């Protein structure tokens, strides 16, 4: 088998996979935009037709094939919050301790730890 032939075959496979993904995304994205207000679920930024391309559909369980008709696995996120959500997910999957601490609510610094003492000093 020649290199050109195998490269052409691989190019066709990649192109078909991209088309399939785009078709799948278009279906659930359109449904999500009809179900939910055009607002980012994290930063609460509002969107209009002019900037709607920056509003994405996030799969809560990170399974892009889980698309229930009621949209219960989706939330609309701006591209920035969506990227942040996926970065946090990747970090948590890799065992990053700082992400685990954020989830549990544990912190290493409490800026108000001595607030009562400071207020007493001012009196």
- Just give the CATH class: Alpha Beta
- Across the major sheet, the strand order is 1-2
Number of strands: 2
What percent strand? 5-15%
Q: How many domains make up the 3D coordinates?
A: 1
Mean pLDDT: 82
Give the H and E element order.
HEEHHH
Catalogue the unreliable spans: none
Shape by Cα distribution: elongated
CATH fold category name: His-Me finger endonuclease fold
Cα-atom radius of gyration: 22 Å
Q: At CATH's second level, what is the architecture? A: 3-Layer(aba) Sandwich
What is the helix fraction of residues, given as a range?
40-55%
Terminal CA distance reads 86 Å
Structural write-up:
With 123 residues, the protein is mostly helical. The chain has one domain (3-96): His-Me finger endonuclease fold. Helices cover 52% and strands 8% of the residues. The chain has helices at 3-35, 79-93, 97-104, 115-122, and strands at 55-59, 74-78. It has a two-stranded antiparallel sheet with strand order 1-2. The longest helix is centred in the N-terminal third of the chain and has 33 residues, at 3-35. The termini are far apart. The mean pLDDT is 82.
